Amino acid sequence: MNDTKLRCSIIMEQTPNPETIKFITNHTLLPSGKVLSFETSKNTEIAPIANALLAFPFVKNVLIADNYISITKHSFISWDDILLEVRDYIYEYFNSGKVAINYDLINELVSDESENKQQVIEEVAIQHNIPQTEVEQKIIDILNEYILPTVSQDGGFITFEKYEDGIVYLKMRGACSGCPSSMMTLKAGIEGLLKRMLPDVVKEVRSENAVEL
Length: 213
Description:
Elements: E1 10-14, E2 20-25, E3 35-38, H1 48-54, E4 59-65, E5 68-73, H2 79-95, H3 103-111, H4 115-124, H5 134-153, E6 156-164, E7 167-174, H6 182-197, E8 204-207
Helix pairs in contact: 5-6
């Protein structure tokens, strides 16, 4: 999966969030549906490339999924000033043979049910909260099938937090977090879909980190 003998190529792709760029590689970084997100160097032994990228003072968040790295920068600097630097750094990182993802450690954490190991997974692995009811499972299934494939293409991810009194609470991550179009995605996209598919169940969808223009 992390075959450093293969020359790495990097394709840069804009996202709806002007602060976030996707850096797509010809490497499979994580299995489909698995996502890691880092805002600090804590627990980056799982993904050394995230630790390296967070050393840049302008990097705010590093999200890793499938075959891409989604980087969100701080607003004090323009992508025009740093884009090629970041691209070249990722290119050199992969092609130097450095470890990008520590798969052995991830497998060890997943198989270890101790509280400390599970806390590490919870802090960096993006995943839905465990559904407590059949309704919550239906909501998660809809998100997985209809919503996540689209937002993942844009370098983002959305997770289920809870369902309470007809309200679905979600969390926007990666490019979705702070994106100018996140409220439209939340209301016109996700809320509209859930209301159509679960009309007697869903009244509203909310997210604390969706941005309203």
